[in-house]
Amino acid sequence: MQAIQVTRFGEPGVLALTELPDPAPGPGQVAIDVTHAAVGLIDVYIRQGLYKDREGLPQPPYVPGLEVAGTVRALGEGVTGFALGEKVVALSSGDGQGGYASVFIADQASVVSTEGHSIDPALAVAAIPNALMAHVALTRAGRLSEGESVLVHGALGALSAAFPGIARQLGAARVVGTVRAERMAAAAATKLPYDTVVDSARLPDALDGEKFDVIVDPVGGLVRTRSLDLLAPSGRLLLVGNASGDWNHGIDGNRIWYGNFTVTGFNSGGYLPTHPETFAPAARAALKAVADGLADVEIETLALADAATAHQRLEDHSANGRIVLTP
Ligand SMILES: NC(=O)c1ccc[n+]([C@@H]2O[C@H](COP(=O)([O-])OP(=O)(O)OC[C@H]3O[C@@H](n4cnc5c(N)ncnc54)[C@H](OP(=O)(O)O)[C@@H]3O)[C@@H](O)[C@H]2O)c1
User: Fold this and answer.
1) Do the strands 174-179 and 2-6 form a parallel or antiparallel pair, or are they unpaired?
2) DSSP label at 22?
3) Nearest atom in ligand 1 to 314's CA
4) How far is CA 137 from the centre of its chain?
5) Fewest CB atoms less than 10 Å from the CB: which of 72, 220, 292, 297?
6) Is 219 a pocket residue for ligand 1 (Cβ < 6 Å)?
7) What domains appear along the chain, each with residue ranges and CATH number?
8) What is the per-residue pLDDT across 109-129, written as a single tens digit (0 to 9) for each?
């Protein structure tokens, strides 16, 4: 098979197109002919070596990529419920045998069938895994109830873009996004179901005193600190990433105490394996949200061989929406 390998931690240039033996599925596994592999900021961080000492994450040489769309190529021993050629989306455990390849081996439990949903595979891989994570994050960590309000930072980012549709599906009364000033034009054109999107540099004033029951924060830094001014009493602040790369802005514990706030982390890589019962309902919700047009993200398609360009674009913040690679 064709695959991209990270040959050593470093710059995007360490991503090299290579030929590897076709892998075969083991017991409980599904082999997938990959048509589209999504590129995420987490792939960039791992390639840079930011998490090189974290247990369970790969060491070079490894194949990156955590999300694929494609068709079932072969079934491992004991696998039922999938047919050869069936259209699927799958998530990787992050073991270094990832999705930037023409063949991907998934654990059966991480495969979602998209058959019968007429969802374009590029959109399927761009939106379904993140919508699945958004569902688990909002229901479990965020404990979102019908009629509540949600604020999403980095509103057009890959992970963030999945939250407004799932929040709507769960009955949120109002969903607002924040973006940097340079993204305001893109925000005005987005099809994502936000009520409004405001400039994050103008927080909290841009929201005119409005408070939110749940705030989703994959950005961190100053935006995270300012979120304490935007939480309603008993509000929940969900920390789901740190795209700003800013580790210097903390959260004042006394503010959490006075406001009866909950500040909670959600990391799907750690949560889903320990809460497997959340996967199936979240996958159903994600499929429905995407099929209902609630997660229509901008998608840019590049060839597998252009993985380095894709990573560079994410590092430069010049990607508009999601980048997917086609083997
Ligand atoms: N919790 C989980 O299970 C999970 C799953 C997937 C990803 N993540 C994490 O979520 C984060 C985002 O990943 P992604 O793939 O969605 O990346 P992405 O598509 O690059 O999105 C990042 C977003 O953050 C915004 N941003 C970056 N720096 C900012 C700053 N200083 N101020 C305001 N906004 C800023 C970006 O705005 P611009 O568009 O203006 O650059 C963009 O909207 C990463 O930390 C990733 O590790 C977590």
Assistant:
1) unpaired
2) P
3) 20
4) 11
5) 292
6) yes
7) 2-127+298-326 (3.90.180.10), 143-265 (3.40.50.720)
8) 999 999 999 899 999 999 999
